[in-house]
Amino acid sequence: MQFGGKRKKLITNPQYELYGHCLQFYDKPPLENISLSEFETFAVERLRLLKTVENLGVSYVKTSEQYQKKLFAEFSNLNFPYKIEADDHKVQTGPTEHEKRRKDHISHFILRLAYCQTEDLRRWFIQQEMDLFRYRFNDLPPQLKTDFLHRNNLKYDMISTEEKNNLKEKLIHSSHAVSGVTLENQDFYKVPFQDALDLVRTRKVFLQGGYAYIPQQDIITIVLNDFRTRLSKALALTARSLPAVQTDERLQPLLNHLSHAYVGQDYSIQKNIGKISLEQIDSLSGKSFPLCMRQLHKALRENHHLRHGGRMQYGLFLKGIGLTLEQALQFWRSEFIKGKVDADKFDKAYAYSIRHMFGKEGKRTDYTPYSCMKVILSNPPSQGDYHGCPFRHSDPELLRQKLQSYKLSPSGINQILELVKGMHYQVACQKYFELTHNIEDSGFSLNHPNQYFIESQKVLGGGKEIKREAETVQKGTENTGSKTPSVSQQGSAQSAQVLGDMEALEAFFQDE
Amino acid sequence: MPNSDYDPACLPDLLPLYYRRLFPFSQYYRWLSYGGVTKNYFQNREFSFTLKDDIYVRYQSFSTQSELEKEMQKMNPYKIDIGAVYSHRPSQHNTVKTGAFQALEKELVFDIDMTDYDDVRNCCSAADICTKCWTLMTIAIRILDRALREDFGFRHLLWVYSGRRGVHCWVCDESARKLSVAARSAVAEYLSLVKGGEETVRKVALSDPIHPFISQSLTIVEHYFIDYAIKEQDILGTKESTDKVFALLPEDIRAELNSVFQKEKNPVKRWDKVKALIQLKRASLKKGSQYIEKEIMLQYCYPRLDVNVSKGVNHLLKSPFSVHPKTGRISVPIDLRELDRFDPFEVPTISLICEELDRPKTTEEEEEDERMKDKENEKEAGERRRIRDYKRTSLAKYVKVFDQFLDALARSRKGEMLKKSDLQKDF
Ligand code: SF4
Ligand SMILES: [Zn+2]
Question: Region Disordered: which residues (chain B) (predicted)?
Fold first, then answer.
C-alpha cells in the first residue's frame, strides 16, 4: 500500500489528479500495486453494486425515485464515492472520499478483466456500467457536470445563435426540455445522429441532414454514448491481452469465479425435461401460464399458426417448462398442419428453427427463454402478431375485457389497470398471479415468464414431480445474490498461499 | 392487360432467356462494387438463390461479374436475395474459424408490405393489391424518402417494386452501409408511428410536442387522405368500416356522430363533421386524445415498416431485377419523379419482355448490328448485344432509372475523392 497517511505528498502525484472528480471516465488504468486480497474485495463489491444496478433496473423505471433511492443506498453501503468533492482534511470515520474514488477506479478495471472474455459478458458489463454511469452523472449538480466535461476533454459542437434562431420552431417542437421561454438561454449541441441513438429512437431530438440537435439537458446521451464506445473498445483490447492474465495462476481462478457470478436465473437449464405431456398443455395454459403465453397458446390453437416472434417467445417458454425437442416438434407440427401448412412444408420451413431453439442446428447462441424485460422491451408485436406482453402491448380496454372473461373481480381488474397505467407491467402481472392463485402476497419478484410458471406450479401443488423439481431450480437461482460472498471466500482460500503484492495492473490495460 | 398471360409453369423456360439476354449484369455489378473503393466489396457480398421447388441456397459469392453471370445462367434462380458484405468470402464461410466470419456492412433497407395494412384496407386483403390501395405505397415512399433525405441526410436511395405487393428501399450511402445494428434500429424506430398487433385498436398515439418529423409526415398524409381514405377506401361509408373509425373516438363524440351520420351520407362531409366535432370538444377532451384526428389519419395511411428487416446487418432482401415467381413481374426500380403515376400492374412480366425480344427487329436495329459486327471482340460483343436486347423491351425505362441512380452514386464518390485530395494538398 502506497497511500497510508502520506496525503500531503499526493498533491503532486498524478494519481491525485486522477481522483479529482467524483465521477470518472476510466480513461487511465491504475498504476499502483495492490494486494491480492484488496483486489478481491474491490472486485466482489463492485460486482455486488452492478448486480444491484441490474436488479433495480428490472424492477423499477430507471428515472423513478425508488430506483434512485435504492441505488443510492447500495452505493453508500458499499462505500463507493458520491457527488461530493474530495475533502481529505475532514476527519471521517469510514474510508475517505479519496479512498472511495480509488476503489471505484480500481474495481472497475478489475471487472474489465473478468468481463472481457466473451460477447455475453461484455454486453452485460457494459449495460450495467452504463446504467450506473447514467445514474451518477444525472445526479451531479450542474456545475460538477460541466467540470466533468472539462476534465475529460469532452468538447461537443455547439450551434451558433443564428442557427438556433433559424431552427427555433423545430427545436421547440422536438423536445420537452425546450420551450420558447428557455430557448434563448439554452445551448444546443450538434452531433452526428449515430452518437445520440437513444434520443433519435424516441424522437426526442431534432434531426436535420444527419445531425441531431441536442439541448444541454440531454447532454448525458452523448456522454453516455462516448462512454459506451470507449468501454467496448477497451474491453476488446483487454480481451486481446487476456492470454497474459490467463497464465497468472493467482488471477485466473478468481476472474473465472467473478465472471460466472453474473448469470442469474437461467431458465434454459431445465430440470423438468420430459415431465410434461402434450395433453397437459391446454389445461396448464389456463392455470399456470402467464398471460403472454396464454395468449400465444390460444392464438396458436385458433389460427394453427404463429408468426416468427410468437414462435420464438412461446417456443422457448415451452422448452423452459420442460418440453423435449421431440415433443416440441410434435406439438408445433400437429398444430401447423391443421392450418395452411402441410407436413412436408412444416419439415422444410419450420422444423429447422425449432431444432435451432434446442441448440440442435446452427451455432448455439442465445436460446434461453425470454425474460419479461426482453418480452416487454424488444421486438414489439405488429400486425398479425400475438407475442409481446399483454400488460404492455394490449389496449387497456381489451385487457380489461380479457381479464373480465377470465372472471377476475372488478376491483382486481382496476388495480391491474392502474399498475399498467403507471407502466409497472411486471407488477401488474404479479397482481394477476395473486388474484388467479388466490393468495395475498406471492412472495417473489417476477421477472421471467418461466418463473411465473414455476411459482404457479408451486402454489397449485400440481404434478408432484414438477413441483419438487421446480423447487430445486428455484433454490438454485435464488442464491445467486448471496453467492458472491462465498465465491470470494473460496477465492481467498486459494490465494492465501500466494499473497503478496501483485504486478502493476497497468500491464493488462495497454492502450494500443 | 399485357401481362395477364404470365403462367408460372413457363418460368423454367423463360428464366434462361432472361438471364442470358436481359438481366442488366453490368449495372448490377457496377452498383454492388461501389466504385471498387473498398477492397473485395463485391467479392465478399452474400447472394442467396431460391431455385426450383423452393430449394434455398445461401452464402453464394462471386469474384467477378462474369462469374456472377455464369453462375446465374447456370442456376437460373427463381429468386435472388442480397445479403451483407462479410469479412470473408461467403462461399468459403465454412473454412473460416467460427466467429471470424462476420457481417460487416450492408445497405440500410426498408421493406413495406401491403399485408401489414390489412386492418385498414377495404378493397383487398393479404397478398392482393389493387390500384386503390397502392396509394398506401405511394404515401409510404413519399414520407420515408423525405425523412431519410432531410432528417438523416442520406442521398442515395433506391426504391424498388417488390414484384408483388410492396416496395423496398435500399439506402446506399457509404455512411448508411456502415451503420451498426443499434443505429439501424434507431432509424427504423424513429420512422415507426404505427405500433401494436392484433390486440391493439388504437395504433397511433401522439403526444405533445408534435415532433417536426410527424408534422412533415402529416402534411404528406393530408395531401392524399380525402381522395384515398375517405373517397376510395370509403372508410366512413359502410357501417362496418365506420365502426372501426368510431372505435378510435371517445364515447361522447361517437354518440353524437351516430345521430349526425343518420342524415349525412356523403363521406367527405362526414369526415368534416368528425373533424368539426373533435375541434368543438377539444377543450373537454382528455389529455392524450387531443390529436385524435391526426391519429386516425396516420393509422389509416402511415407506412408500416417491418423493423426487423431494417435492423439486421445480415438480413437478406430480395434483389432488384429479380423475378417474382408468382406474378412473373420484374422487381424494378421506381422513378420518384413519376411516383404518382407508377402503376404496379404496368410493370412488365418476364413473359412480356421475353416476347418483346422475339419481335422482328426494325431496320435501324439491323443496321446497327451490322455496323458493330466487325469492331467488337467476343466478350464485348456479348455485353453490347445484351444492352441492345433489353433496350428493345419494356424493361429499358427501368434500367434507365437504375443507371441514373448509379451515375449519382459515382458523382458523389468523385466529389468525395476530390475533397480528400484537396485536404491532402492543404497539408
Ligand atoms: S409480465 Fe412477463 S410473464 Fe407477465 S405477461 Fe408480461 S412478459 Fe409475460
Ligand atoms: Zn386494394
Answer: 358-385
C-alpha cell at B297: 389519419
Residue-wise pLDDT for B22-77, tens only, equals 999 999 999 999 999 999 999 999 999 999 988 999 999 999 999 999 999 999 99
Give yes or no for residue A270 CB within 6 A of ligand 1. Answer: no
Ligand 1: which residue has its CA nearest to atom 3? A449
Best B53, B200, B254 residue to mutate vs chain A (most A CBs within 10 Å) = B200
Of all atoms in ligand 1, which is nearest to the CA of residue A449?
3
Is B113 marked active-site? yes
Please give the distance, rounded to the nearest whole angstrom, from the Cα atom of residue A429 to the centre of ligand 1.
6
Give the count of beta carbons closer than 10 Å to the beta carbon of residue A93: 4
Per residue in B91-101, pLDDT (tens digit) is 998 888 877 88
Q: Domain count for chain B, please give it.
A: 2
What is B210-238 written as a DSSP string?
--HHHHHHHHHHHHHHIIIIIIIS-TTTS
Please tell me whether residues B315 and B345 are part of one structural domain: yes
Cβ atoms of A342 and A418 within 8 Å: the answer is: no
Closest to A46 (Cα-Cα) out of A111, A136, A127, A130: A111
DSSP state of B23: S
Report CB contact under 8 Å: A390, B199.
yes
Which of B233, B266, B301 terminates a domain? The answer is: B301
Cβ count within 10 A of residue A303: 18
Residue A462's pLDDT band, with cuts at 50, 70 and 90, is low
Residue B155 forms part of a structural domain: yes
Q: Report chain A residues whose CB lies below 8 A from the CB of B199.
A: 295, 381, 386, 390, 393-395, 398
The Å distance, Cα B242 to ligand 1 centre, comes to 34
> B248, B281, B301 — which closes off a domain?
B301
CA–CA gap between residue A77 and residue A273 (Å, rounded): 41
Q: Is the CB of A372 under 6 A from ligand 1?
A: yes
User: What's the CATH number where B13 sits?
Assistant: 3.90.920.10
- CATH 1.10.10.10 for domain A14-149+224-258, yes or no, is no
**pLDDT of A124 higher than 90:** no
Range of the domain at B415: 8-189+305-424
To the question of whether residue A372 is assigned a binding role by annotation, the answer is yes
B3 is a domain residue: no
